[in-house]
Design goal:
The protein has 137 residues and is mainly alpha-helical. It has helices at 18-26, 46-60, 78-82, 117-133. The two termini are 24 Å apart.
């Protein structure tokens, strides 16, 4: 399970560095850079992360989950959802580069690793069971 911290980004009004202006002009072109903040940071909620770890331990076993996954700096729209409710962004174990399912999700040649379907089903079944068994807030 991983969490990201928000990083400061340049202001949209900050002019681009000189080298970004120089490259287009060297080829007789112009360019304009507009920086936008489309996605909120995806930051895992402590209670939701603890639940996700317990669920993974029960669903796939102690030796088949990694509770200390390093944070990633990917752009993810899940952060918008997380701004409204406690969440945990969980990796299901689809694969790493060079393995089945290891191609990044939004790549043209992405293929889901069907071998993990049973683990994914067990994980989400257990998540529902443990969530429903908790007392209401």
């Amino acid at each position: 399970m991983s969490s990201s911290s928000s990083a400061s980004a340049p202001s949209p009004s900050t002019p681009p560095p000189r080298h970004r202006r120089g490259h287009p002009s060297a080829h007789g072109a112009t360019a304009e850079v507009t920086y936008t903040r489309e996605f909120a940071s995806t930051v895992n909620h402590a209670d939701a992360t603890a639940l996700a770890i317990r669920v993974a331990q029960h669903a796939v076993g102690e030796d088949q989950h990694e509770p200390a996954t390093p944070p990633i700096m990917a752009s993810e729209d899940f952060g918008l959802y997380a701004a409204h409710t406690p969440t945990n962004f969980t990796f299901i174990g689809n694969g790493t580069t060079g393995q089945p399912g290891g191609t990044p999700l939004h790549s043209h040649d992405y293929t889901f690793n069907d071998a993990i379907l049973a683990d994914g089903i067990r994980y989400y079944q257990e998540l529902v069971h443990q969530t429903l068994a908790r007392p209401a807030d």
